[in-house]
Amino acid sequence: MTFKELVVAYFQYPAIIAYLVLSAAMFGVYAWQPAPLVPSLISAVVAVAFYPLAWYVLHRWVLHGQWMYKFKAFAPVWKRIHYDHHQDPNHLEVLFGALYTTLPTIVIFLAPIGYAIGGIGGMAMALAMGLLTTCFYEFCHCIQHLKYKPRAKWLALMKARHMAHHFHDESGNFGITNFFWDKAFGTFYERPDRQEKSETVFNLGYTPEVAKHYPWVAKLSGGVATGHPSQRAQG
Ligand SMILES: [Zn+2]
Ligand SMILES: [Zn+2]
Ligand SMILES: [Zn+2]
C-alpha cells in the first residue's frame, strides 16, 4: 500500500468524515460565540495535551481492564471496540473506534474543561481540537495496521511499538501516538525488554475458560477463537 492509497482509504471511512464535519461545526460555534484569545489558546492546548492521558487511562483500565466482558450490557461494546481489534488487528472495519463510544467520551472529557476555561467559545474550541486529535490518532492507527511501511523514523518506531502491543505483549505500550504515559506508569517496553510472548495477546484474557463464566462475547463471536489471527479463517 502506498501513502496515497492509505490516505484515500482513511478519508472514505464514515467516522473520519463525521469527526471532520463535527469539528467544522464546532469551529462554527466558536465563530458565533468566540472566547478571548488567551482562553481559546488554553482550551486548544489543554484538549491536545490531555488527550494522550485520557487515551492511556481508557485503553489500559477500560479496554484492557478485564471487566467490560463481565457485564451483559458492556460485552457487545467491548467486543466491537477492542476485543475484535485484538482478535484480528489488521481488519479495517474494526480498526476505527465506534462513534457511539468516541463522541460521548470526547464530550464528557473536554466539554466541561473547555467551558470552565472559556465558556461556550472555549468549549467549542476544546471539542473541535479533541475531534481533530481523534482524526490524528486514527490516522496513525491506520499507518500502524495497514500494509504500509513508514519512511520517517518516528513513525516506524511508533508502528513497531503498537505492533508489539498487538503481537507480543498487550500489557504495555498503550499509547498510540505518544508513549509518554507508558513511560510515566512503567508500561513502556521495546521488544527485547520482554522475552516472553503474552499468551493472551489476541484474546485479551477472554479465554475459553473465562467464556464459561461470562459467555456474552463468545455468543456474539460464534465461539472463542484461539491461535494467531493469520491462521484463522477470516470472517
Ligand atoms: Zn491497534
Ligand atoms: Zn489494546
Ligand atoms: Zn472456571
UniProtKB/TrEMBL annotation:
Residues in Fatty acid hydroxylase domain copies: 45-187
InterPro entries named in the record: Fatty_acid_hydroxylase
TM regions (residue ranges): 7-31, 37-58, 94-117, 123-143
Keyword Transcription regulation attributed: no
GO molecular function: iron ion binding; oxidoreductase activity
Highest taxon above the source species: Bacteria
GO terms (BP aspect): lipid biosynthetic process
Record key words, sorted: Membrane, Transmembrane, Transmembrane helix
Name this protein carries in UniProt: Sterol desaturase family protein
Taxonomic placement: Bacteria, Pseudomonadati, Pseudomonadota, Alphaproteobacteria, Sphingomonadales
